[in-house]
Specification:
Elements (H helix, E strand, L loop, with lengths): L2 E5 L2 H13 L4 E6 L6 H5 L10 E5 L7 H20 L5 E6 L4 H10 L3 E4 L4 H21 L17 E7 L6 H14 L5 E5 L7 H4 L9 H5 L7 H7 L1 E4 L2 E4 L5 H5 L3 H14 L2 E5 L6 H9 L2 E7 L2 H16 L7 E8 L7 H8 L3 E6 L2 H10 L3 H4 L4 H11 L12 H6 L4
Helix pairs in contact: 3-4, 4-12, 6-17, 11-12
Length: about 425
């Protein structure tokens, strides 16, 4: 592991150098950034840096003109995003005088690992560098020394990407997403991938096959430099002939090492082989979830008709709008809805500011059996009100409509509805 420092003035350069020495952290280089050249030119001197390398840099000191200051910060983040797109295994720690939420979100989108205030607090800086050092060790240990040549990548076509995010924990987001994936393949005959990106608490592998998968997303990202079609296919778990699962990493240390750029590469390849790619996201916003939200064609926001869900959904929708996501991309799904509950659908819609496009009724008996046995709900009972509502929600992703269910006597006699 090595640390490279790029600073915009001598004072900061000396401060950062001293901090590294005091904490016994390896300093590979410390250079002064001249005012003329762009940040990209400075970064390109580190093009050959090994995986896990840490780059510590600051945004330029604010000019007197606020507009110029904003432009300078935007240029820096654009340079970082361009550079990190090809080097996802590097770690960038950015120091900035701007502590606004908008800068933090743009920095995460660019692939920056952490943003600290400028001037830096010595203890906070030391803690951040130690965290990144631990992550660098994991990346270095899991990166092949000489990756083999990659085969041809995915086909040129790109399937639809659908993201699922719960407004809070316990809304049933993973269950909803997993069962919609089943419906896409079983009833609409679509080739579908389910990607579990709840890296710390992912349980989609149980909903889709009772945890029988042998490989995970971590097996792909540990070898991101040689990611190709054969490697991807070897890590997918075939739940059914047309439904593939890419499970969350089995170990926490593998999850920590995954970057937003890794996810972008993986999802880009997955989409090339599937008509529909469904992604289960954690509820918190970070660089990884922001990358998926940007890539997604549709984002399902899952909530229940309870007071605390309304408050959290309201906050989440506000943040997503601030990040530039259009309302047309956001699909509000109300799960476990009970008629006559604490919050009516009308009140919920007014509070959140979105129309509830999909309402899944409460059906604890059959849902509990599916949850405990690790089966799809349609395999437990395909005629519940819950599965009918899920079928309608799934159909909204396609240009077709769900087939009308036949009466039991018509099915027995072989007649059509």
């Amino acid at each position: 592991m090595s640390i490279h420092v790029i600073a915009s003035n001598e004072t900061l350069l000396g401060t950062l150098r001293s901090s590294l020495q005091q904490n016994a952290l390896p300093l590979a280089s410390a250079v002064l950034r001249p005012p003329g050249p762009s940040l990209l030119q400075q970064l390109q001197t580190l093009d050959d840096a090994p995986p896990g390398t840490i780059v510590l840099l600051d945004s330029p000191v604010r000019p007197n003109n606020a507009a110029n200051a904003s432009d300078a910060a935007s240029d820096d983040l654009a340079s970082l995003e361009t550079w990190l797109r090809q080097r996802p295994q590097l770690n960038v720690l950015l120091l900035s005088e701007d502590n606004s939420k908008s800068l933090l979100m743009r920095a995460m989108r660019a692939g920056v690992r952490e943003v600290l205030p400028l001037p830096p607090d010595p203890d906070e800086l030391a803690q951040s560098l130690k965290r990144l050092s631990e992550r660098s060790d994991l990346i270095r240990q899991n990166t092949p020394a000489q990756p083999p040549e990659s085969a041809d990548a995915a086909p040129s076509r790109s399937g639809r990407l659908v993201a699922f995010m719960g407004c809070k924990g316990g809304t049933g987001t993973s269950f909803i997403a997993a069962n919609m994936a089943h419906i896409l393949t079983r009833e609409f005959d679509k080739k579908c991938a389910f990607v579990d990106l709840d890296l710390q608490c992912g349980d989609a592998s149980f909903y889709l096959g009772s945890g029988a998968n042998q490989h995970s997303l971590g097996d792909l990202t540990r070898q991101i430099d040689r990611l190709d079609a054969p490697l991807l296919l070897s890590c997918l778990h075939a739940v059914t002939p047309k439904l593939n699962l890419l499970a969350a990493p089995h170990a926490l240390e593998n999850a920590i090492a995954i970057s937003a750029q890794d996810i972008e590469k993986v999802l880009g390849l997955v989409r090339g082989f599937h008509e529909q790619t469904l992604v289960d996201l954690p509820r918190h916003l970070n660089a990884l979830t922001l990358k998926v939200l940007d890539m997604a064609d549709t984002v399902f926001i899952v909530m229940q008709s309870q007071t605390q869900d309304v408050r959290d959904a309201q906050r989440l929708v506000k943040m997503l709008r601030a990040l530039g996501l259009d309302d047309a991309k956001l699909h509000l799904l109300v799960n476990r809805h009970k008629t006559g509950g604490w919050v009516s659908v009308d009140d919920l819609q007014r509070a959140v500011g979105l129309t509830a496009q999909h309402i899944i009724p409460n059906g604890p008996e059959w849902v509990d059996e599916a949850l405990h046995t690790g089966q799809a709900l349609s395999a437990v009972n395909e005629h519940t009100a819950v599965i009918h509502a899920l079928r309608e929600a799934t159909a909204s992703l396609l240009p077709s409509t769900p087939q009308k269910q036949r009466h039991w006597m018509q099915r027995w006699m072989g007649q059509t509805a």
